[in-house]
């Protein structure tokens, strides 16, 4: 049976308590409420992105369509203005005057039709721009929420990291001077058993696995030399005997 000073074994419980607290801090860091909220916001932003791209594309298409409609109307107006100018000049023949008059009538009808198209495009563009503005406002609100939650997450991380750093310093002091073989065994068991390598023997219960040990095992443990490193027969953890223990020390 391995041995280590009884005081070192008792001090090992302090190390275990610090390690347990470090585990709790690590768990808190991975499970900050802000992280779940960020995941939710990322999903909402992703869902909105498709609508945003579609709406922006539709607005861009309608702007090009409006530019074309405006160009078509302008071309007809310019042609009509030139025809009217020629007609007003009085320098054309009667035959040409009739042709110009007929063309002006045709151009007027064409202009009216094109202006209807232009108006329709303008109305559709206005509706889509309004829809786009609403989608962009919703997206901006989500992005702003995300930035706020990220700041909350970073502040939470900074606080937990500061606690972990202080804990690491305290842990280094707690383990200093302990029996090297005892610490090595503890570290090995801690890695194998979910972070708990040592536990107090509380009455006949191992507070590592929370199992009541058989009377024979308890008697053997209690009769072992104070410097004997005893292990729980159920979970294999180091069992530390503390006089009057009534609660877990971990």
From TrEMBL:
<feature type="domain" description="CT398-like coiled coil hairpin">
    <location>
        <begin position="15"/>
        <end position="194"/>
    </location>
</feature>
<dbReference type="InterPro" id="IPR003743">
    <property type="entry name" value="Zf-RING_7"/>
</dbReference>
<dbReference type="Pfam" id="PF02591">
    <property type="entry name" value="Zn_ribbon_9"/>
</dbReference>
<dbReference type="Pfam" id="PF24481">
    <property type="entry name" value="CT398_CC"/>
</dbReference>
<feature type="coiled-coil region">
    <location>
        <begin position="125"/>
        <end position="152"/>
    </location>
</feature>
<feature type="coiled-coil region">
    <location>
        <begin position="45"/>
        <end position="86"/>
    </location>
</feature>
<feature type="domain" description="C4-type zinc ribbon">
    <location>
        <begin position="205"/>
        <end position="239"/>
    </location>
</feature>
<dbReference type="InterPro" id="IPR056003">
    <property type="entry name" value="CT398_CC_hairpin"/>
</dbReference>
<keyword id="KW-0175">Coiled coil</keyword>
<dbReference type="InterPro" id="IPR052376">
    <property type="entry name" value="Oxidative_Scav/Glycosyltrans"/>
</dbReference>
<protein>
    <recommendedName>
        <fullName>C4-type zinc ribbon domain-containing protein</fullName>
    </recommendedName>
</protein>
């Amino acid at each position: 049976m391995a041995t280590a000073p009884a005081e070192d074994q008792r001090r090992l419980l302090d190390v275990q308590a610090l390690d347990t607290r470090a585990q709790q801090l690590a768990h808190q860091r991975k499970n900050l409420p802000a992280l779940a909220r960020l995941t939710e916001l990322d999903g909402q932003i992703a869902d909105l992105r498709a609508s945003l791209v579609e709406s922006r594309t539709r607005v861009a298409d309608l702007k090009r369509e409006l530019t074309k409609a405006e160009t078509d109307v302008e071309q007809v107006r310019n042609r009509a203005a030139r025809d009217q100018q020629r007609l007003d000049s009085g320098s054309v023949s009667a035959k040409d005057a009739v042709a110009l008059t007929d063309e002006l009538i045709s151009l007027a009808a064409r202009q009216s039709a094109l202006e209807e198209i232009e108006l329709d495009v303008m109305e559709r563009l206005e509706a889509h721009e309004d829809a786009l503005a609403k989608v962009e406002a919703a997206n901006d609100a989500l992005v702003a929420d995300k930035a706020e939650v990220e700041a909350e997450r970073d502040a939470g991380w900074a606080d937990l990291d500061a606690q972990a750093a202080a804990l690491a310093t305290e842990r280094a002091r707690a383990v200093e001077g302990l029996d090297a073989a005892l610490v090595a065994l503890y570290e090995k068991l801690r890695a194998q058993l979910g972070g708990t390598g040592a536990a107090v023997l509380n009455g006949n219960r191992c507070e590592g696995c929370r199992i009541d040990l058989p009377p024979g095992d308890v008697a053997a443990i209690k009769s072992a030399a104070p410097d004997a490193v005893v292990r729980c027969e159920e979970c294999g953890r180091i069992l530390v005997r503390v006089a009057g223990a009534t609660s877990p020390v971990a």
